[in-house]
TrEMBL record:
Organism field: Clonorchis sinensis (Chinese liver fluke)
Matches recorded under SUPFAM superfamilies: UBC-like
Stated name of the protein: RWD domain-containing protein 4
InterPro entries, alphabetized: RWD_dom (IPR006575), RWDD4 (IPR042770), UBQ-conjugating_enzyme/RWD (IPR016135)
Annotated ranges, domain RWD: 7-108
Lineage, broadest ranks: Eukaryota, Metazoa, Spiralia, Lophotrochozoa, Platyhelminthes
Spans traversing the lipid bilayer: none
Amino acid sequence: MSDPRQEEAEVLASIYDPNELSVSDDYTIEFKLGEHGTPKSMILTIRWPDGYPTVLPTISLDSFYNGHLSTAVKHLIVEELNALAQEQLGTAMTFSLIDYARENAERYFSLSLSSTVNSTAEVTNLAGNYDEQPSKKAEKKVQLTKAQKRAHYRRLDINGELPRGWNWVDVAKHLQQVGPVR
């Protein structure tokens, strides 16, 4: 008896263009949605564990390529796809998951684009029952390199003030540059 994951991988490879779908040896499927290089694009990653299709696949949007999508929108997409996968447990569901994501891609992209314009709180209201609170960001300190710190300390004394005589002219050096007076 052959592995159902292998059969489904072959079927998906025959349906989709190799530029859209990639299947790795460890049964990780990456599907590209939208127009490449635009904010209306994303990569959906589905990983089939041992026991698939009776075990839920792992669905994620954690790819670096999806950095333009807000956390709330990613969470919404994964929740909806997991709910669909739960309904279809026991059957080959990857085609259905990809098809559902394709059908709703415009809605996801519009939510993502509106989240860049609107606050994150409004997107969570659109997304439904997403309960994560926006994290408070600590103010960043100015990070200086070692060379910058060294130059800073050379200019200032212990109290942070310019040292006495910092703008004095070295008389001997000045006379050497000017030359003898006639």
